[in-house]
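Let us work through a complete example step by step.
Step 1: write down the sequence.
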Amino acid sequence: MDPESSPLQTSLIEHNSEITTGNLWFFVVLFLVILVINALISAAKSAFFDLTERQIRELDKNHPDKAKIVHELNKRPKKLEASMLIATTLLHVTLIIIGHYILKFWLGVDRIHMMGSWLNAANPIEVGNIVVMIISAIVITFILALFGTLLPEKHAAVHQLQVIRYMVKPLSLINTLCYPMNALLLRLSNTTENRISTAHNTPYTTKEDIDTAIDLAVTNQSESSIQEAGILKGIVNFGDTSARQIMRSRMDIMGIDIDCDYEEVMHIVRDSGYSRLPVFKENLDHIKGILYVKDLLAYTDENKDFNWQSLIRNAVFFVPESKKIDELLREFQLKRMHMAIIVDEYGGTTGIATLEDIMEEVVGDIKDEFDIDEETDFIKLDENHYIFEGKTLLNDVCRVIGESTNFFDEVRGEADSIGGLILEMTGMIPPSSQEITIGHLRLKVISATKRRIEKVSLQVYEN
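Step 2: predict the structure and record it as tokens.
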């Protein structure tokens, strides 16, 4: 110890020695506990905000009590995010303070004084304390980044549902405890955002705004420019489109009964022109597998008794109607599959969706050498008059007439096709003399059976 130390420095040395010997391990344990709490919150935050609809449905089925809390927290995600931000900030500050004292106690006043002396400081103790503070800040920042954020988030990505099951109740508790602070934080944040938006005349951008901007960016009306604009609009709306909106409906599915003989199978294969066909037992609600036509190439000369059922592939991919097609595309890539069976809430088959159907949502209709032009779903009579098949999907109708894909959202209800839209609005199949007006569009049923609308006339009028 410096013989010229002041009485204040001597008092600090004695006080520091007493704290070091009595409480060092307490502070170390407290530091580790808070670090673990911070890691759990980071893992929970990562897991919660990355939850998919499928995982939420799995929670509903297996852990309804915890799924109920998830649904409650999902109602106000900004509030939860603010609460977690407040909690982690408080924990970080606490860790930095405790870490600084641990390092300070561990080094001791003599070493701190020595650091200040090496720097030829007039007051070695104060300068040494500043050096210790800088060192502790660097070390604790590294510890927080690695053990408090990076590793927990990696763990949450692998064990997402497990993390949610254990942490959803603590998250709800944090959300409740931080209520006064997060309410104030959200109010200040919203006020600031509104003022910035008003000052710079930059309101929030909607998808309709993006669609309009894309239309304005098309400087000429050439076919290639219109096609590029359509692709950009498809990309913008890609994540909001459900499998139900792109699927081929149950009425249009070409399948094979598992009890058919080989001669019937070959006849269906030749007539359909498809490379993959679902195989069912009795009806399409009991799909047993998928038959790949290429698997039949080596057996084209077999007789009607050939056991073609041995060629059926049992890996069938079932997805709910509500699944978004961006998720469906990722699952197609992961599972290396090209076809999914779309099922309703009761498990019944409502349609099929293929990789080609997803791609067509972005690039438009894809025609191969087997597609026939006459089989298109609409006829263009003039610039503003079209005849559509009743089964034509509303998304396709919007693309054909040049409207945004959410044009019918306010009136469509549960309908996905133009025929279904008319049924949704009228509650029946209207007579051919009745016209239905939606904005600047006028719809009229041209032909229908007792069960379905077959053809619809659509005229576009100037706004």
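Step 3: interpret the result. The first strand starts at residue 248 and ends at 249.
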